[in-house]
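Backbone-to-sequence.
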């Protein structure tokens, strides 16, 4: 592992050493140590054999897969509820849920059965034909969002690509020009494809891949004057995450969103909200913007929409839909295929049946309370911020060592930038699991302080 991936570089600027180096992940030392410790605790020869199997998979992965991820030295095998198990059977409490994907938890029988039934029927057909799961999924998605038109994609980035194209086409149809601009936000994250990358407000992600698609301007989140400074005659869209995720868990302020909506209405600019991470119940309403009563013209979603099956979608109001993408303007082979749409249908059904949104409202108050209590202790925590089950603890130092130590103790956490621990558990998480998480986290923090 000679190359330091971007994430490790990102996390490591504070003291000149990278997180990669600080956490000992530059070589296989840390992995070896974890494995020795786990093998050493009276587990006997069987486990040593397992450990070498784990190491072997890791080595094989590193020699076969393109090294674009700074992976932890764990090979995951199966999941159950809010727990994951590695190939040696070690149990992990998962407060990352595949980065805000597994809203319903792992191995949800109803969901698994629905997918199996669809596999037995029809997995894929081309978009030249209609299929029932796609119709059903679109209807359900319209009902929960109040949007009018749906285009299914395979990922979040692809949903953003579609949203960008729709906005450009909308403006093109008005004046026939091709120099329209999009105003996006600093510290935003919208994905890794060229269009999504171009509107991502962290230059470190874009740097090596410039030039992007062009005509993108960046304003400051929650600073309406900064948006006004960037909006002009050419602006066709304003794009933001309703709650910024990767950038450090920053919710948009209600006043800011409302001002954006008004500005967009006055100037016939499209408001695009990225709900890929913060949508699907995560913040306590199906989509985060619904709490503010600020409806976008275009919305992108993905992640928990499929709860594990790779899907995304961009949705439009009738006005945006009827005046933008037309026959032949956009397409995808897999987007909206029967298997993916069967997953969406089941997810939306289970959200309703299990009152997931109500549950998030109840449990997130408890998580906030527990996290707030931690802020007041002297662990170098500066603040908590977030909404619902999308929370961040902001530290005065890099969080990589805490996350690594939590993993060793069987707790999966992720960061959001170098100094924020992000909490995005499955939406079915209960009080007991919050307590379990807090106990492990606090023991890691206490150890780091010692
Ligand atoms: C807010 C947001 N937008 C877009 C994306 C890109 O989604 P995907 O990784 O599915 O392409 C992500 C992924 O983390 C995200 O958090």
């Amino acid at each position: 592992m000679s190359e330091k991936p971007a994430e490790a570089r990102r996390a490591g600027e504070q003291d000149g050493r990278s997180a990669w180096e600080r956490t000992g992940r530059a070589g296989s030392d840390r992995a070896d140590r974890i494995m020795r410790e786990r093998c050493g605790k009276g587990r006997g020869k069987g486990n040593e054999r397992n450990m070498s199997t784990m190491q072997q998979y890791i080595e094989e992965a590193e020699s076969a897969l393109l090294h674009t991820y700074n992976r932890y030295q764990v090979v995951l095998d199966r999941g159950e509820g809010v727990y994951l198990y590695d190939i040696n059977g070690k149990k992990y409490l998962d407060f990352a849920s595949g980065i805000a994907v597994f809203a319903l938890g792992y191995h949800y029988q109803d969901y698994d059965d629905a997918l199996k039934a669809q596999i037995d029927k029809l997995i894929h057909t081309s978009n030249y034909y209609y299929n029932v799961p796609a119709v059903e999924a679109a209807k359900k998605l319209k009902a929960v969002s109040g949007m009018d038109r749906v285009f299914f994609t395979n990922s979040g980035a692809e949903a953003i690509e579609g949203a960008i194209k729709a906005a450009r086409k909308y403006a093109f149809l008005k004046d026939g020009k091709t120099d329209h601009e999009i105003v996006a936000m600093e510290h935003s994250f919208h994905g890794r494809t060229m269009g999504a990358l171009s509107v991502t407000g962290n230059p470190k992600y874009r740097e090596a891949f410039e030039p992007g698609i062009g005509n993108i301007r960046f304003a400051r989140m929650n600073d309406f004057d900064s948006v006004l400074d960037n909006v002009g005659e050419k602006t066709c869209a304003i794009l933001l995450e309703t709650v910024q995720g990767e950038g450090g868990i920053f919710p948009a302020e209600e006043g800011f969103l409302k001002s954006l909506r008004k500005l967009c209405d006055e100037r016939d600019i499209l408001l695009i909200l990225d709900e890929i991470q913060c949508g699907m119940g995560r913040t306590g309403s199906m989509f985060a913007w619904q709490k503010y009563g600020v409806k976008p013209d275009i919305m992108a979603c993905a992640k928990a929409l499929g709860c594990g099956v790779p899907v995304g979608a961009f949705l439009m109001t009738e006005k945006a839909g009827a005046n933008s993408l037309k026959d032949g303007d956009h397409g995808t082979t897999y987007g909206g295929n029967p298997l993916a749409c069967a997953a969406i249908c089941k997810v939306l059904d289970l959200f309703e049946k299990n009152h997931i949104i109500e549950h998030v409202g109840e449990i997130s108050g408890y998580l906030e309370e527990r996290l707030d209590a931690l802020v007041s202790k002297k662990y170098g925590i500066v603040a908590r911020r977030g909404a619902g089950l999308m929370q961040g603890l902001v530290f005065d130092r890099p969080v990589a060592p805490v996350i690594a130590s939590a993993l060793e103790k069987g707790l999966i956490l992720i960061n959001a930038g170098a100094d924020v621990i992000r909490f995005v558990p499955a939406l079915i998480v209960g009080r007991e699991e919050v307590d379990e998480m807090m106990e492990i986290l606090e023991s890691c923090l206490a150890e780091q302080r010692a």
